[in-house]
Amino acid sequence: MDGVDSQVNLNWDTVTGATYYSVYLSTAQGMFTEPAAATVTDATYNISGLTNGTTYYFIVKAGNSGGLSAASNEAATTPAAVPAVPTSVRAIAGNGQATISFTSPTDNGGYAITSYEVTASSGSIVRSGASSPITVTGLTNGVSYTFTVKAINQVGSSRSSSASNAVTPSSPSNSGGNDSGSDNDDDRETAAPIADVLLNGQVIEAGAKTTIDLGNRMLTIVVDGTKLENRLAAEGQGAIITYRANTTFDRVVAEMDGQLVRSMIKKQAVITLKTNQAKYVLPVQQINIEALASQFGESVALQDIKLQHLL
C-alpha cells in the first residue's frame, strides 16, 4: 500500500474462490462500518480525493455468492505531497547581502514545513532558514540579483516561487548619490539601506528605526524625538524634515510624538514623506497639536501621543 498526493494505492493477495473484494476505509483505527468504500474484482484499488496529512486505515474482505470472508489485516498510510509554492517574494538589498521575505504557502502538503530554501539568480548561492525573512550573504556589491524560494517538508521541496524584485547590494560608502532629477531640497539626499531622515536635504543621525509589516507590505519610520529636536533647534525657520523610504513598499508611515510636532510647529517646519513612487508634503502648522492634546486630558504627556502620516 502506497500513499501519495491525496490518494492511496491498495493491493493484496488474491483469494481462491473470491469473485469480488470489498474495501473498507476509516480515519479511526479498528472502526469499520458498512457499507464498504468500494467493491472491486481485481486485487488492487486506487482511492483518490483524500486529505494529505490524515492517516487512513483499510481492511479488505473477499466475497462470492456465499457472502464475505473475515476481514484482512488492517493497513494504514498517510497520503502527503510536497508543499505549495511560497508567494509574495520580496528582496531588500544590504552590504554584500539581501534580506528575502515571503509568504508561506497555506498548503503544506500534509506535513509541517521544516525549512525554506532561497536561491539567488546567479544559481551559485543558496541559503536556508526556518521562516521568513532569510538573509542571503556572500553577494557581490554592484551586481543585480533576484531570488526564488522553495518550501520543504519531509516529502520534499516545492517548486520554486516566482522571482523577487531585482536588488543590487552595495556598501555604505557607495550606496547613494545625488538625485539629479529632483527639483527641490532633496538634491543632496544620500540613500540608506531601508529608510532615513533628512533635515534641509541632509541625512541626519536621528535614531531612525523602521518596522516592517510583511503581510501588509508596510514600512513604518520612527525617529528619536529628542535627537531630532536638538538638531532642529540649530536650524532656522521653515526647516524641511524628510522621512524617506529607499525600498519599495505598498504603504509607508512616518510616526512622531506630540512633543516633536510642537517643536516643529515653533520652527514652522514642513514634513515631507518620500518614497520611490510618490511624495507627500505637510506644513506642520496644519496640525493643531494643542486641540488634539486637549482631547486626551492633562494626564497624557505630549510625548505619549503618537501621530502617523501615511503615504
From TrEMBL:
Residues 158-189 are annotated as: Disordered. The keyword Repeat applies. Residues 1-81, 82-171 form the Fibronectin type-III domain. Transmembrane segments: none annotated. The keyword Repeat applies. Pfam families: fn3 (PF00041). Keywords: Repeat. Residues 158-181 have a biased composition (Low complexity). InterPro entries: FN3_dom (IPR003961), FN3_sf (IPR036116), Ig-like_fold (IPR013783), Striated_Muscle_Regulatory (IPR050964). This is Fibronectin type-III domain-containing protein. It comes from Paenibacillus plantiphilus.
